[in-house]
């Protein structure tokens, strides 16, 4: 903003009453620099709780914990929408006001800018020595030659009788306008993404697959304008999952690399192609991205019931209890077991080692000596037939859990099973076999049509802000006077943007150097 | 050399850099202590004043004009005097900037020490990188060492063009404290990083963040001095000089920080499946960015220049520091796998 504009802003405004007057006053206040400043503060301040209070979209489990531990606090948080700060009404109010102010700022400034682009630099003032930068030297320099030299320095030049006026640095305003417009663009791109995009998570065990349909997701968050048919119809198969670990030194056990070997069908009738999914290389199918975001173990179990029939066989994804050793908790349910349903709580130890107290623990996250320890076996109604949705990581709802009859529990837990080993349940209730180890991965599938526009606007913003901050608008005026003993040249200069005067002294000195040099010294 | 030896060498370099920075600080402080008192405003600063040298008529001819040009130190008229000017200044009892010669000599020695310390700091980063065979900013320790390096680089690079020796003592003490903090609190043995950090994006995103943080640290130091120093006479640098140094550093750092945030979003898009998810680190980068934008706006808002703008700048700087260190320690989130 130029100094003149600032003056205008400070000038007392006439009190105009009536609705129009108030509207005009409101609009002027909203689009003033001071309001923009206050709104920027509010935007920053409003973001702070978003980092201190857990956010539903980011950490739903932590939000649930606050509800459990401190319901009153949770209620207050909820009242002020603090669990979803960035989609809250009050946060939206701040940024919408800010962007309205921004539009109100951009439009008049664009108009001024376009006018300025066409306007020629003003005539040189009479007394150049009043300008912030001034030099004077004796020379026979002529107006035409001065103009030529200044044009060579890429100034826009106007000449008159005995004076030259030159201006440069129009890109500054260009940059500033483009920067602010790009901010608006980023906001719109994000809005488009949240309306027309979707995102979902799914867990896939080695050997299994996933087809991109709403039903296949474990968790699916669509934008309000997304229909189920618009999902990109690709499918994938997890052939194999590999983790490389650091095996020695201080960081022993740290994961070095995750690779998921996928077979991907880009569409139902496209041939399968191989793809190695890694942490920093998502799979892309027509703008839909698939990311590898988690992994764990899924040991395979076989449950034989009291009648000698196989009641369950398959891989069971286990919840990680300790990230460093990948010790995991597993739940196996066999609702089809006869005569009574069977349920098991197990602990999976990828690298099982005996401890001195006779228990076992995992010593390494890789599966070097995988064993499972039976923590408890139960019989009774697991509640799976009630039709209510149930967690696969929980044996039974709490109210049913109490009614289950323990078969194996507490101090009587047997030695862990290695792959291929099995354990017979007491009372002839059946048998549990640990067949082998598979791994699971979690995928995030995301489609966001605003991604690319957001990138383009962001790139524009960076370039534009660099231009806006690095370039200064400056004017140079020259007056040549002829005297009895040779000519005298006055040079004056000023910068038109505040805060950027520093550095101009140097450039001004260079300009004076170019102008005062003899004819031959100038190329 | 083996990886262990390189890692050890890197640790030694850090200690060396701390010592050198401390000695340099003493030198710079000596220069300030024996220097002249300065008024709150410099004679030739601000848009309304003009460098006096150019006011005198300059004789015709390229040589004379070039003298006139050089005699106008760009950002620090009157209060500083450039290094080049000093060597040309003759054997007077006072330097050309009016500072006693002994003080100026202490300053020059300090500057040399600062450069050696800078080289040691660089050595620490390079040997660490060689030892771990990756970009050496994968955890808090490496990150803080790199930011200290960037802050000293920002100071020394500015010093090449304009005399900002008056800031030396304060930049040195900040860098020495930063390195000390890195060694005492954040130290992490050389080693590999988790897969998510194994990406060329670390080179782009974190490097930009480090450069911006270095510059903003220098600006922050100048801002703190601005507030400490009153308007009157003081041995501390003039307020206008401090404000100018801070403003220039921020003007340079803001686009770099903008770029760093955007590069971070691009990386998040590759690694986590969304370019922006309001993770605590993202929230604080955003807050920092908005706060510096507010500073730039404050500078052009009537009545906010000077003290108020400096306070805004320091609030923004506090946000930056909290983002670099506080978020990892107090909040966590996806970014916190860069071990504390
Ligand atoms: C969305 C939030 C905004 C951000 C992040 C932002 C950011 C910036 C930045 C970084 C600059 C410095 C560039 C420069 O000095 O040339 C700037 C300048 C400027 N902004 Fe904004 N701005 C925002 C909103 C606004 C609004 C709402 C207005 C109008 C009321 C506005 C008016 C200006 C003006 C006039 C300048 C030029 C300052 C100068 O000439 O030095 N900005 N803005």
UniProtKB/TrEMBL annotation, chain A:
<protein>
    <submittedName>
        <fullName>Cytochrome c biogenesis protein ResB</fullName>
    </submittedName>
</protein>
<dbReference type="InterPro" id="IPR007816">
    <property type="entry name" value="ResB-like_domain"/>
</dbReference>
<keyword id="KW-1133">Transmembrane helix</keyword>
<feature type="transmembrane region" description="Helical">
    <location>
        <begin position="90"/>
        <end position="111"/>
    </location>
</feature>
<feature type="transmembrane region" description="Helical">
    <location>
        <begin position="177"/>
        <end position="198"/>
    </location>
</feature>
<feature type="transmembrane region" description="Helical">
    <location>
        <begin position="36"/>
        <end position="53"/>
    </location>
</feature>
<keyword id="KW-0472">Membrane</keyword>
<dbReference type="InterPro" id="IPR023494">
    <property type="entry name" value="Cyt_c_bgen_Ccs1/CcsB/ResB"/>
</dbReference>
<dbReference type="Pfam" id="PF05140">
    <property type="entry name" value="ResB"/>
</dbReference>
<dbReference type="GO" id="GO:0017004">
    <property type="term" value="P:cytochrome complex assembly"/>
</dbReference>
<feature type="transmembrane region" description="Helical">
    <location>
        <begin position="452"/>
        <end position="471"/>
    </location>
</feature>
<feature type="domain" description="ResB-like">
    <location>
        <begin position="33"/>
        <end position="508"/>
    </location>
</feature>
<keyword id="KW-0812">Transmembrane</keyword>
<keyword id="KW-0201">Cytochrome c-type biogenesis</keyword>
<dbReference type="GO" id="GO:0016020">
    <property type="term" value="C:membrane"/>
</dbReference>
TrEMBL record, chain B:
<feature type="domain" description="Cytochrome c assembly protein">
    <location>
        <begin position="137"/>
        <end position="335"/>
    </location>
</feature>
<feature type="transmembrane region" description="Helical">
    <location>
        <begin position="167"/>
        <end position="187"/>
    </location>
</feature>
<protein>
    <submittedName>
        <fullName>C-type cytochrome biogenesis protein CcsB</fullName>
    </submittedName>
</protein>
<dbReference type="InterPro" id="IPR002541">
    <property type="entry name" value="Cyt_c_assembly"/>
</dbReference>
<dbReference type="GO" id="GO:0020037">
    <property type="term" value="F:heme binding"/>
</dbReference>
<feature type="transmembrane region" description="Helical">
    <location>
        <begin position="199"/>
        <end position="228"/>
    </location>
</feature>
<dbReference type="Pfam" id="PF01578">
    <property type="entry name" value="Cytochrom_C_asm"/>
</dbReference>
<keyword id="KW-0201">Cytochrome c-type biogenesis</keyword>
<keyword id="KW-0812">Transmembrane</keyword>
<dbReference type="GO" id="GO:0005886">
    <property type="term" value="C:plasma membrane"/>
</dbReference>
<feature type="transmembrane region" description="Helical">
    <location>
        <begin position="314"/>
        <end position="338"/>
    </location>
</feature>
<dbReference type="GO" id="GO:0017004">
    <property type="term" value="P:cytochrome complex assembly"/>
</dbReference>
<feature type="transmembrane region" description="Helical">
    <location>
        <begin position="143"/>
        <end position="160"/>
    </location>
</feature>
<feature type="transmembrane region" description="Helical">
    <location>
        <begin position="12"/>
        <end position="34"/>
    </location>
</feature>
<keyword id="KW-1133">Transmembrane helix</keyword>
<feature type="transmembrane region" description="Helical">
    <location>
        <begin position="109"/>
        <end position="131"/>
    </location>
</feature>
<feature type="transmembrane region" description="Helical">
    <location>
        <begin position="249"/>
        <end position="268"/>
    </location>
</feature>
<dbReference type="InterPro" id="IPR045062">
    <property type="entry name" value="Cyt_c_biogenesis_CcsA/CcmC"/>
</dbReference>
<feature type="transmembrane region" description="Helical">
    <location>
        <begin position="283"/>
        <end position="302"/>
    </location>
</feature>
<keyword id="KW-0472">Membrane</keyword>
């Amino acid at each position: 903003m130029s100094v003149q504009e600032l003056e205008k802003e400070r000038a007392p405004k006439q009190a105009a009453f009536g609705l129009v007057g108030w509207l005009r006053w409101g609009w002027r206040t909203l689009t003033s620099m001071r309001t923009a400043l206050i709104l920027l503060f509010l935007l920053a301040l409003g973001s702070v709780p978003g980092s201190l209070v857990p956010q539903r979209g980011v950490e739903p489990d932590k939000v649930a914990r606050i509800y459990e531990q401190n319901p009153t606090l949770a209620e207050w948080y909820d009242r002020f929408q603090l669990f979803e700060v960035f989609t809250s009404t009050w946060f939206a109010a701040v940024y919408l006001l800010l962007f309205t102010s921004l539009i109100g700022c951009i439009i008049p400034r664009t108009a001024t800018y376009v006018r300025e682009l066409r306007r020629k630099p003003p005539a040189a003032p009479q007394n150049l020595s009043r300008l912030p930068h001034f030099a004077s030297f004796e020379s026979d320099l002529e107006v035409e030659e001065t103009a030529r030299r200044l044009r060579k320095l890429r100034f826009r030049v106007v000449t008159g009788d005995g004076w030259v006026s030159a201006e440069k640095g129009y890109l500054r305003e260009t940059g500033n306008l483009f920067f602010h417009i790009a901010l608006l663009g980023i906001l719109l791109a994000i809005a488009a993404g949240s309306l027309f995009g979707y995102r979902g998570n799914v867990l896939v065990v080695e050997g299994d697959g996933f087809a991109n349909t709403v039903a296949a997701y474990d968790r699916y968050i669509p934008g309000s304008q997304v229909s189920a048919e618009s999902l990109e119809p690709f499918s994938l198969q997890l052939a194999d999952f590999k983790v490389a670990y650091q095996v020695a030194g201080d960081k022993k056990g740290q994961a070095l690399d995750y690779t998921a070997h996928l077979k991907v069908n880009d569409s139902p009738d496209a041939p399968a192609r191989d793809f190695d999914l890694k942490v920093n290389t998502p799979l892309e199918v027509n703008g839909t991205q698939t990311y590898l975001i988690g992994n764990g173990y899924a040991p395979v179990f076989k449950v034989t019931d009291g009648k000698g029939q196989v009641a369950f066989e398959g891989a069971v994804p286990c919840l990680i209890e300790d990230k460093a050793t990948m010790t995991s908790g597993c739940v196996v349910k066999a609702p089809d077991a006869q005569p009574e349903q069977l349920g098991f709580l197990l602990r999976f130890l990828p690298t099982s080692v005996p401890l001195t107290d006779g228990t076992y623990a995992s010593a390494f996250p890789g599966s070097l000596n995988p064993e499972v320890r039976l923590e408890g076996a139960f019989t009774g109604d697991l509640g799976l037939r009630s039709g209510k949705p149930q967690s696969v990581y929980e044996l039974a709802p709490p109210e049913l859990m109490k009614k289950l009859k323990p078969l194996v529990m507490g101090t009587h837990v047997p030695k862990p099973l290695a792959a291929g080993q099995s354990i017979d349940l007491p009372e002839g209730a059946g048998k549990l076999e640990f067949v082998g180890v598979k791994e699971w991965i979690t995928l995030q599938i995301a489609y966001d049509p605003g991604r690319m526009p957001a990138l383009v606007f962001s790139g524009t913003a960076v370039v534009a802000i660099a231009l806006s901050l690095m370039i200064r608008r400056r004017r140079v005026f020259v007056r040549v006077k002829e005297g009895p003993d040779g000519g005298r040249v006055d040079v004056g200069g000023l910068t038109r943007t505040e805060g950027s005067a520093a550095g101009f002294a140097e450039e001004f000195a260079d300009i004076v150097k170019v102008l005062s040099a003899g004819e031959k010294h100038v190329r | 050399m083996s990886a262990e030896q390189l890692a050890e060498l890197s640790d030694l370099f850090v200690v060396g850099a701390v010592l050198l920075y401390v000695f340099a600080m003493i030198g710079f402080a000596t220069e300030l202590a024996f220097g002249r008192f300065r008024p709150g405003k410099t004679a030739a600063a601000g848009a309304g004043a003009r460098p006096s040298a150019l006011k005198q008529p300059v004789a015709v001819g390229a040589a004379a004009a070039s003298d006139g040009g050089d005699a106008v130190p760009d950002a620090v008229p009157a209060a500083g005097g450039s290094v080049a000017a000093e060597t040309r200044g003759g054997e007077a009892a006072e330097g050309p900037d009016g500072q006693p010669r002994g003080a100026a000599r202490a300053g020059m020695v300090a500057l040399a020490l600062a450069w050696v310390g800078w080289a040691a700091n660089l050595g620490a980063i390079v040997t660490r990188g060689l030892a771990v065979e990756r970009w050496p900013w994968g955890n808090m320790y490496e990150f803080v060492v790199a930011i200290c390096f960037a802050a000293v680089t920002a100071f020394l690079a500015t010093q090449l063009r304009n005399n900002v020796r008056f800031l030396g003592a304060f930049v040195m003490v900040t860098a020495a404290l930063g390195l000390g903090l890195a060694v005492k609190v954040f130290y992490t043995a050389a080693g590999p990083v988790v897969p998510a950090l194994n990406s060329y994006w670390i080179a782009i995103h974190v490097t930009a963040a480090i450069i911006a943080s270095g510059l903003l640290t220098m600006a922050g130091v100048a801002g703190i001095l601005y507030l400490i120093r009153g308007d009157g006479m003081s041995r501390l640098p003039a307020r206008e000089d401090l404000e100018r140094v801070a403003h220039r550093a921020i003007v340079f750092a803001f686009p770099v920080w903008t770029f760093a945030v955007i590069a971070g979003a691009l990386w998040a898009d590759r690694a986590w499946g969304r370019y922006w998810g309001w993770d605590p680190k993202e929230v604080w980068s955003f807050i920092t960015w908005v706060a510096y934008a507010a500073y730039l706006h404050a500078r052009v808002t009537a009545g906010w220049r000077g003290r108020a703008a400096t306070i805004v700048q320091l609030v923004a700087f506090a946000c930056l520091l909290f983002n670099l260190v506080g978020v990892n320690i107090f909040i966590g989130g996806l970014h916190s796998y860069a071990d504390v």
